[in-house]
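[09:14] KT: can someone run the structure on this one? pasting the chain below
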Amino acid sequence: MKKILVSTALLAGVLSYAGGFRVSLQGVKQLAMAHTSAHAEDASVAFFNPAGMSFIPSKLSVVAGGFGASNKVTFQNLNTLQSTETDNPLGTPFYAAITYKPIEKLSVGLSVSTPFGSTIQWPENWEGKEMVQKLELKSFYFQPMVSVKLAPWLAFGASYIYARGVVNWDKAVTQFGGQVNIKDEKATGHGYGFGFYFRPDPKLDVSIAYRSPVDMKAKNGVATFKFPTQTPYSLLKLNAAGQDGFTAELPLVEEYTIGLTYKVTPKWQISADFNYHGWERYSKLTLDFDNAPLAPNNPGDPTLVVSPKNFKNSKTFRLGTQYAFTNMIYGRLGAYYDESPYTNENFIPETPSFDTYVITGGVGFKLKQFGIDIAGGYAMPQYRNVNNANLGFYGQAKARAFYFGLGLSYNPF
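[09:31] RB: done, structure tokens below
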């Protein structure tokens, strides 16, 4: 029972990442410039700051894009020197947005994006198999929004966030020689965002935005156990199919962003962003099972699993640039540094996180009302000396990752 308890406590951490792991891939043009936000040239600004819609030069703007994200994680046990590498499939996040100005000072829009989610796949029999074998996370954000131009140089915008999330997790249960699959396909949450967008000078754009916490509610979760025999079913109070249900409320963190773009010359501009993520909301997470007594140390309710977390607030620093070679061709470069939200003592292999440096670049083409953008990024995560005493997980973790994307825009009038 002890091993099942420890592994189930990890579930809270796993599910938190079903909506809480931030993926900076919401605009191809933005990625090429380090994923900076103060760019109001088309509807791609909508996800970053709804107020930016008021400064889009077109009355109607439509954008869509997709990415390929490849990453590998290697863990080495420093006692045995045995190394294990993930075999992760290519991630394919996407985004789309539309904005429209029904009157001069009012803009409305809709943004659809996948800001959280990934898939990590370890070998079935690796040393951390009781923590994770495969974990697939997906999320979708739907954001209707409105922006009002308060002055020729100032706009305010706000959005409503409706989120849907999916988690599908496999891990071993070696105490009984089996496996468990954890799944919830209908987690939902609600939130909001708002921001101000300033253009005090034709050369300067300033974006200040806030995205609220979103509490994802998993009401229909199912844990399916598979054992060589049905003997453990009665011990764990599972049904005849080896299943038990669970509910959970999973807090996703808020995000603060300050961004600016300065036009050094008519052809050359520089952009910078600062992001602040409130990861300290992860003080603890709870999972309430229907029947399974997976928390024997909680006599008041042995079906209620409480997992303490020690996350910390984190920051991201971004710097990008764009140069117009002609009226049709644009070159872009960028770099950013992203802090991990937890220390080596809290490292978990389900969603490994690293302090990471990223370099980005891309090109853009304008063909009258149409735009085509191509971008790529190469991540350089810093290795970690894993020292998680709660899980008995020790060693060294390394990673590598790269991204590429294609985006389209259309500003007809």
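[09:33] KT: thanks! The chain is about 10% helix and 55% strand.
[09:34] RB: yep, looked fine to me
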